[in-house]
Amino acid sequence: MISDAATTQVAALYRFVRLENYADLREPLLNLCEARGVRGTLLLAHEGINGTISGTTQAIAEVLAFLRSDDRLADLDCKFSYNRERPFLRMKVKLKNEIVTMGRSDIDPNHCVGRYASPEQWNALVDDPDCLVIDTRNDYEVEIGTFQGAVNPNTTSFREFPDWVEKNLDPTKHKKVAMFCTGGIRCEKSTSLLVSLGFEDVWHLKGGILNYLEKTPQEQTRWDGECFVFDSRVSVDHQLQKGRYDQCYACRFPIDEAQKASALYVPGVSCPRCHDAHSDEQKQRFRERQKQISLARARGEAHIGADAAQKLVE
Question: Which family is annotated (predicted)?
């Protein structure tokens, strides 16, 4: 349900497809977004497009129409949610080597990938005792919510996932594997990796957690907690509304009201988790950054330091 106050549409999108001229798309895409008041970050690479943008419903529709006018992007995967405030301060279109960074140039979802499971099919995989369900997200994302019984690889970066697979999974033992992530993009690469390693029965949740939460009635859910998102909302609940978490901009981990009440929590500088992990010099830099962010927000301006909390999974 969309509340009357939630006037900003948030669109999370991606598409794996060969874009040989991806650099040529940057300027017209950026110009259109800026002209329509759209903010967020989009990544372009040879392997496709990935990103999250926000704006009015009409503005988002125009940007998506522009992208889909390219036949290669006609099947762009996109998921929508709504927010009372704009979750991004600026618009950026970046050129990258990968639209989601695994660090393995030999893995190409355009060449091979696992089988999609719709939200309607997903519960059966979660409930199947013979199916190993793996959360491909990073530890700070898993901490606030995941599917029941899912394996947490305890990675701090998606680059670590291939090593975790090689050390912990065996195609002769793990006959059926199902994986999931926030919007589906990391799972495209993770299933491509497993298929290339000889795993045969490999599934991934189409559209990711966000699509599952949108399509699955709460009384039927296998999801516990909230879903971390890479914008200023920090997390969303089962109704895809802003959740109860903020973020510690020093360590990136989500924090709740109890943690914010701690004497060890200093906005932008430290939280109970990381208060002793940074030097005094680093903390002083964090304080100055937070001061400039606060001043910029008071003026209604963007500040580059604020992007630390809005970094896409790359």
Answer: Belongs to the TrhO family.
